[in-house]
Amino acid sequence: GPAERFTMALQGMGGDFDMQIEDGLWMLAPGSGKGRFDKIVLTRAQGDAAPQTLMALQDLRYSAAIERTGSTLGWTTKAQTQGSVGPLVLEAVGLEETVSRIDVEAVKLFQKALVAAYRADPTQAALLADPPGDALWKEAAPLFVAALPAYAVKLSATLEGQQAMLEYGAEIQTAPTADEVQARGWGPALLKGSVLHAGLRLPKAWLPRIVQAMGQQDMPAEQIDAMVGMAQAQGFVQQEAEHLTSAVRLEGGKLQLNGKALDLPMLKPVPQGE
Hints:
This protein is of the alpha+beta class. It is built from six helices and twelve strands. It is globular.
């Protein structure tokens, strides 16, 4: 079929930033900033058809702050806006992102890897796939992990006066030993000493609007209630007054959904001697 084209238009940009580039940290310089976009519009066009608006946000305001504490960096980003996403008209949208304990020396090594990759092939620089970049990344990874970094995001949106919340994040609580990495690889070794979590709080009043946005214009309320009941019976969601909630947590290789343990064989420790 005809090729799809996506177009993003930004209007009314502005901002103020106060950064202190110190100790060679040009990628994550301590400081703060704030700014705005009067309008952000994302459209999709296919062939000769009229463009379809996928998202239209107005009056976006954001702020960011990067702080250095000894050998680590951390930052917080906040944003507020309003507008439409598909057919849903949102009175308010909020974002808060927090990153903690990023090792300064690891950042410097990553900067070196990026510069080396850019000099080798500017078109592929972001992949860090060249040998010098790969070696620097391998040197930076243990430093990054040993600082026990953490990442957390909170999203909120208000539709017809009802607010939904989504939060998710990850934190390395214990750095894996070199032997653990050698035996299992970085991924499983990191999972053993990390916490991953996510939670959703959704007003039940949103459900008809979401169903309509997915193209089911005439789904009766009884059918929506039946779907919710089925999800609740299977343990995927819980009902709290006028809200649906769901929470998942992975800690120490153990997964919990709404407080109940789930058995995941792939997360179990590798028996000794294998």
